[in-house]
Specification:
The chain is of the alpha/beta class and 419 residues long. Helix content is 19%, strand content 30%. The longest helix has 19 residues. The chain is elongated.
Length: 419
């Protein structure tokens, strides 16, 4: 029996990331940047107003609000004539003369010689002439050219996951396309004479095809571009045609329901001349019986998963998902693992690493992680799909451990975050 770690090493050694491709920035979200995006222009590209107000020379408003008294005994008021108005997007240059003000909108280019913007609330809001109530310092409320990014700066680094902020920055520096690591293409096929699609009513001895839907969703969650083939015939000739067609269009192929009973022999016969495909026991539960090989001219990683949906999803999580993450260029392909204390006892199969469903919680008082086992508790069944749907983690039990007592620490792998 092969260890989980050995099987994972064998699988990940077969990982081949698709070549980087250049895509529109609107299509790049969630992908890994494959280039250093160097800016050619400053951002902002010109000095601009950071607030609605009046563009001024700061030296002209220094005395505002000082309570100075004139020769006539009256308070001195500092006023400036408003000699123009500049809105955002204006392309008409304006030159500011000493002791003048120009009305500006947020984002408007700053007039020549202006070095500050006087906010509206520091004036009386006049149109032809303004009373200055408080001064501003040089550079205040001004976005200088290149304050954000200078020419030659790296706006987005290679290896960065492109999110909303990165898309915005790419647009701001004038990039309409970017080189990224594309999503690996993954095909999901279900086999089994007992399967019917969800749009049909199962007859005696028939069940719905759960795996092609569940595994396709898991692959999308991992970041793959998924083709759900659905149910394929177990006739060797027809099955070979289906799989061969997917090997041409995919970086990863997953065949569910292919490692049990007569289906295994039919699948082996169908795929025998496409490449080496090994089916063996891996020291894990659920999902110990599984297959892996590299098929076709391009040696595409191909997985044979159990027919039981829980086992298939667990094997996918442990073996297939890391391969997708590596193909995406992610440095850390595995789930985050934390230590939690159990709130119920757990039993595990000897000499197999357990990947048991659980609900992870956090103690509000101590901040400590706690985990409620959904599978692996005494008397629990390992095949129940409903409990997997309730799980937000997998409890990892070492092969030499068969009993975990309440309160014992265990390793827990986060599954996808909800909400």
């Amino acid at each position: 029996m092969r260890s989980v770690e050995d099987q994972q090493a064998r699988v990940t050694a077969a990982a081949v990331a698709p070549r980087p491709v250049r895509v529109a920035i609107s299509e790049a979200q969630g992908l890994l940047c494959a280039e250093e995006v160097v800016t050619e222009r400053p951002l902002p590209g010109f000095d601009q107003a950071a607030i609605d107000g009046y563009a001024v020379r700061s030296v002209d408003v220094q005395g505002a609000g000082t309570d100075a008294i004139g020769d006539d005994g009256e308070p001195i008021e500092l006023t400036l004539p408003v000699v123009g108005e500049v809105s955002a997007g204006s392309r008409q240059p304006i030159r500011l003369q000493p002791r003048q003000a120009v009305r500006v909108d947020t984002g408007a280019p700053l007039p020549t010689l202006a070095d500050a913007v006087l906010p509206l609330d520091r004036t009386d809001g006049g149109r032809a002439r303004i009373k200055v109530l408080r001064p501003v310092r040089s550079g205040e409320y001004v976005r200088r050219a290149g304050d954000d990014v200078q020419p030659g700066d790296v706006a987005v680094r290679a290896g960065t996951i492109i999110g909303a902020a990165q898309v915005g920055l790419l647009a701001a520096v004038g990039r309409d396309k970017v080189l990224v690591h594309p999503r690996p293409r993954l095909s999901v096929i279900s086999v089994g004479g007992e399967l019917v699609d969800v749009d049909r009513t199962p007859g005696p001895g028939q069940v719905y095809d759960v795996n092609s839907y569940a595994l396709a969703a898991a692959a999308r969650d991992a970041g793959a571009d998924v083709n759900r083939v659905g149910i394929a015939s177990t006739d060797p000739k027809r099955l070979r045609e289906v799989v061969e067609g997917q090997l041409i269009r995919s970086e990863i192929v997953v065949v569910a329901g292919a490692v049990g009973g007569g289906a295994l022999e039919e699948v082996r016969e169908a795929l025998a001349d496409l490449g080496k495909l090994e089916v063996e026991r891996v020291a894990m539960h659920p999902g110990s019986v599984q297959g892996f090989g590299q098929l076709g001219r391009d040696e595409v990683p191909t997985f044979l998963l159990p027919g039981n949906p829980v086992s298939a999803l667990v094997v996918f999580e442990v073996m297939v998902r890391p391969l997708i993450r590596i193909a995406l260029g992610r440095r850390q392909p595995m789930r985050r693992v934390v230590t939690a204390r159990t709130v119920t006892p757990i039993t595990s199969i000897p000499d197999r690493k357990g990947f048991l469903r659980g609900q992870l919680m956090r103690d509000e008082a101590t901040g400590e992680y706690m985990v409620q086992a959904l599978g692996g508790a005494a008397g629990a069944s390992s095949h129940l799909l409903a409990t997997l749907a309730e799980a937000n983690c997998l409890v990892l039990i070492d092969p030499e451990v068969t009993e975990v007592r309440t309160g014992d620490p265990v390793d827990v792998a986060f599954l996808g975050q909800r909400g």
